[in-house]
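FIELD: query
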Amino acid sequence: MKRSQINKIIQDNISFIEGTGFVLPPFAKWTVSEWDAIGGEYDGVRNGRLGWDVSDYGSGDFHKKGIVALTIRIGNEKIDGFDKPYAEKLLILEPFQEIPLHFHPNKIEDLINRGGADFFIKLYNSNPDDSINTVPVNVFMDGRRFTVPSGEIIRVRPGESITLLPRQYHAFWSESGKTLFGEVTMTNNDHHFFDVEPGPTEIEEDEPLLFLRVADY
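FIELD: result
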């Protein structure tokens, strides 16, 4: 990805998020020059890995496989005062942009449609050897519990949420427009991807940094 593309993606998504009525924390809008003027009292943002991530999962095609994420809060047992057991993120998907199929070995998470278009999520259970299990999947949505066939696609409309359990394979995408997700989770952030392990996002530095990603701290 080009740095100019990442700068524009973050700038555009600040406008998109605020257009949904969600008020961002101040650090989400600080430019590089503003970060340079910030003192050590905000080391908790840098060391706690709060802030933006823009990833194409190493695919080279952000608009097909990619995600924009903003970590708003996350616990870290190694940092005094930040040892809370929960995390909150915002995720933004472009139309027809997909998150590859994966599960989290030890994490429970809620995905909340905060605004924009509907999103779609495909669910599978996993076997102990990490292969896909074909038995029906228990689904939890806003206090509702029901069962769907393995690989079923579920629509999540604005205001709705779905709970994902440890080792539950999921891939999700938007179709008709841009979608803003809320993600409320345990702090554990490990991933296991099905079939392939995505690579790092390669950056072509074609213009100066405007907004910092977590990887740029």
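FIELD: remark
The chain has a mean pLDDT of 91.
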